[in-house]
Amino acid sequence: MKSKNVDVKIPESELEAEDRGPEEEHPRESDSNILDLSSDYPRDKHISIQRHLADLEKLADLREDERKPCPLCPEEKFKACYSHKLHRHLQNLHWKVSVEFEGYRMCICHLSCRPVKPNLVGDQTLSKMGAHYHCIICSATIARRTDMIGHINRHVNKGETESRFITVRAPKSSYEVVKESATDVQVLPNHYTPQKTDSYFNPKMKLNRQLIFCALAVLAGERKPIECLDAFGATGIMGLQWAKHLRSSVKVTINDCNENSVTMIKENCHLNKMKVKLNIKEEDNGETVGNGEENSDTIEVTKMDANVVMHLRSFDFIHLDPFGTSVNYLDSAFRNVRNLGIVSLTSTDISSLYAKAQHVALRHYGCNIVRTEYYKELAARAVIAAVTRAAARCNKGIEVLLAVALEHFVLVVVRVLRGPTPADDSAKKVRYLIHCQWCEERVFQKEGNMVEENPYQQLPCDCHGSMPGKTAVLLGPLWSGPLFNTGFLRRMLLEAVQYGLDEAQPLLKTLVCEAECTAPKHFSTHSPGDENKQEECGVYIRTPNTSAESYLVHGKRKSEEVLRSAAKRQRAEHSAEHPPFYYNIHRHSIKGMNMPKLNKFLNYLSEAGYRVSRTHFDPMGVRTNAPLAQFKTVLMKYSTPTYVGAQAEGPVHLPGEIQVGEDVPAAAVIKVEEAKVAEDKSGVAAAVFTESYPTHCAAE
């Protein structure tokens, strides 16, 4: 009994020392596997880890007493008993709740291996023992069975299948080969969970990868070759697509700080018949696979921190796609990026950007945001504001080429303009936004440093005068400039058609309409005549056209003058930027009324003289320069009552024949809505409307 008490108190030292005696007496009994391990596990395992139930019973058989104690329970919890009762105890309380891994069972252990919190009663500390499991790989003690299963799965996903934290590669039989855009990559089975595997590959981000590829293809058409960097390679799928389709136009560098990811990137390069150029710090000799003998099929793979590799080298195209926010890498990205280069970043911290965790957005982006009807565009402008400040610290300005905010990510693509003057111009476009919390009206704060006496006067609505208390909130700082470049988007669409990127084409068409603030129309995949020259932040982009070639006949100087004058005309034509933000038609619908179809409503607003388009941020959103009062007026005019007995079709004629183009006060619109709701089933509401509607707006 003394030996049993010692075993209970010190299970890891005394038990192993005591078990060596019987092991020497029966050295030929290999079936017991009491303390022997296979070659896969070169260390002594805990007694709770066995292959068979009989092995646990043999641990108790080592005692010569007639009553046999439980080897995994202390005497205070389970006293010594006969073999049939011990068998039932081991089977029901230890073996049935065990965790299996490669033929071994990790049974639950009640010994004092795991420290427990002492009870309030001083002498009863041993009355409550902590039940736990012992990990066969890292010797950790886990309390719950579900947590133990997840702990083992994390070891497997990381390739850790041996003891003492020996990290090994997972067997190739467990790999999965995923194909996307004619590019094959090997991924681990749990590749879609970034916190549980090194080779993170998200199939839902296919659209994001296609948009970035189109942006790089457009830049490759301007100048070649260009040096591009995928700072967070993971599986290397993005860099492989760049090198495989753009060939000699790009020099691809794929970076990752994880050793397993770098190894997988090299294997994926070999899988796609690409040569791998190792890092300078590694071996200097490259490996050639297949027939990739040209320099265009060479991909450089580096194992560094993303900030380090961007500080050491200069690139023309940089893409940042970390797990979460990318603000920690913006200073390094803009430090060495070349002039007129492109920086694209994907932010997946949508909980903070979409105003679900406002304190995190304030901490990461220095921006105060709330949940509004245009929260996705608010998130995109918050990211661009952080990008603008980071570029300005490096004396660089930006021009936003593309800003997309979808369900899983926020993608921003900007062109870099070197110099203090572009930096100052970009910094001036970062302003605060005044948002009315009652009617959702919004307006950017005016430029200047002077404090206004009544900032509510900048809002078009009069909610502050009609509502008690403070009605508006100050959001930002946000980017107040345009979110799209029409010429760049059109060339991205041409590249998407050329390379057969079907998922990106509908979105790019929507973005072109949104950038021009026009209704959806038919797109031509060929280069039209008016697109022979596009100006983007001072960069002249030419496409092959006969009219452009005719300008070059009269000499270099005259051709430059003609092109410069054409650029001025085009700048004047496209000077009107798209209006900021959008309205949700469902958010401003009238109670008791059926609103018109969205496309018809766009035509109604266009006929009223306003610029209007749909937006990719919201499927029911309308981007327009019409004030909210006019927006509600047109919506109310073309809505039909829902109750039976009223007029079936056609617009609702406002009393007094109010013109849509006139400026109607917001309070009058609200009262008109109340009058429409108060209209009875007979359809007669003249008395209610006459009392509520202002006399200066009514004709009778």
UniProtKB/TrEMBL annotation:
Keyword Nuclease part of the UniProt annotation: no
Residues in C2H2-type domain copies: 135-155
Keywords on record: Isopeptide bond, Metal-binding, Methyltransferase, Nucleus, Phosphoprotein, RNA-binding, S-adenosyl-L-methionine, Transferase, tRNA processing, tRNA-binding, Ubl conjugation, Zinc, Zinc-finger
Molecular function, one GO term: tRNA binding
Residue span of region Disordered: 1-40
GO biological process, one term: tRNA N2-guanine methylation
Chief site of localization: nucleus
Transmembrane portions of the chain: none
Bias type Basic and acidic residues, positions: 1-31
Xref: Pfam families: TRM
Catalytic activity line of the entry: guanosine(27) in tRNA(Tyr) + 2 S-adenosyl-L-methionine = N(2)-dimethylguanosine(27) in tRNA(Tyr) + 2 S-adenosyl-L-homocysteine + 2 H(+)
Location relative to the cell: Nucleus, Nucleolus
GO CC annotation terms, alphabetical: nucleolus
PROSITE patterns: SAM_MT_TRM1, ZINC_FINGER_C2H2_1
Gene3D superfamilies reported for this sequence: N2,N2-dimethylguanosine tRNA methyltransferase, C-terminal domain (3.30.56.70), Vaccinia Virus protein VP39 (3.40.50.150)
Family the entry assigns: Belongs to the class I-like SAM-binding methyltransferase superfamily. Trm1 family.
PANTHER family, sorted: N 2 ,N 2 -DIMETHYLGUANOSINE TRNA METHYLTRANSFERASE, TRMT1-LIKE PROTEIN
UniProt name for this protein: tRNA (guanine(27)-N(2))-dimethyltransferase
Taxon lineage: Eukaryota, Metazoa, Chordata, Craniata, Vertebrata
